[in-house]
Amino acid sequence: MILIFIEVREGKVKKSSLEALSEGKRRAADLNTEVNAVLVGHNLESLASEVLPYGGSKVYVVENSLLSHYSAAGFSQALFSLVEDIKPEIILFSASSMGKDLAPRLAAKLGVGLASDCTRTIAKDGKLEVVRPIFAGKAFVTLSFKSSPIMATLRPNV
C-alpha cells in the first residue's frame, strides 16, 4: 500500500498534496497495490471526502485537538503510530515546507532513509524508484530502495 500525507493549511487541502496523491495513484496502478491518504489535525472529517476523488482508496483521519496547529513532534508521532498499525510499503509527502520538516522526522522514527525533492517516480520490476536532482539541478540520479517503507518527498508543480 502507498500512503500519501495530505497537508492541510488554514482548513484547506494543499494542492501539492493532491499532486502527490495523483502520483501515488499512478504508481499504485503500476505496482498492483492501493493508494491511501492520511490527514492529521483537528476537525478534518469534512476534508476526507474532498481528497477521495484524487485517487485514494481510503482516507485515514488522525484527529486530536492537540493537533489543531502544526507541530513537527506531534504530527510525526501521530503518523508514526498510524504507520506502525497499517504498515504501508511506500510513504509519500509533498516537498512543501511542512513535508520537508515532517518526512525526515518520520523517517528517523522508522529507521529508514528518505529521498527528498524527487521530480519523478518510476515503477520498475515491481518496485518504486525515484528521480531527484543533484549538483544544484545540473544532473539527476535514479534511486532504488532496500528497506521498507520507502519514503520520499515529491517536488510540487513538476
Key terms:
158 residues, Rossmann fold, three-stranded antiparallel sheet, 34% strand, alpha/beta
Short description:
By secondary structure, this protein is α/β, with parallel strands linked by helices. The protein has helices at 15-31, 45-51, 72-86, 97-110, and strands at 2-6, 8-9, 12-13, 35-41, 58-63, 90-94, 115-118, 120-124, 127-134, 139-143, 150-154. It has one domain: HUPs (Rossmann fold), CATH 3.40.50.620.
Characterization of the model:
The protein is α/β, with parallel strands linked by helices and 158 residues long. The chain has one domain (2-154): HUPs (Rossmann fold, 3-Layer(aba) Sandwich), CATH 3.40.50.620. Helix content is 34%, strand content 34%. It contains four helices and eleven strands; from the N terminus they run βββαβαβαβαβββββ. It has helices spanning 15-31, 45-51, 72-86, 97-110, and strands at residues 2-6, 8-9, 12-13, 35-41, 58-63, 90-94, 115-118, 120-124, 127-134, 139-143, 150-154. The strands form three sheets. The chain has a six-stranded parallel β-sheet, sandwiched between helices. It has a three-stranded antiparallel β-sheet with strand order 8-9-10. Helix 2 links the parallel strand 4 (35-41) and strand 5. Helix 3 (72-86) crosses helix 4. The longest helix has 17 residues, at 15-31. It is globular, with a radius of gyration of 15 Å. The mean pLDDT is 94.
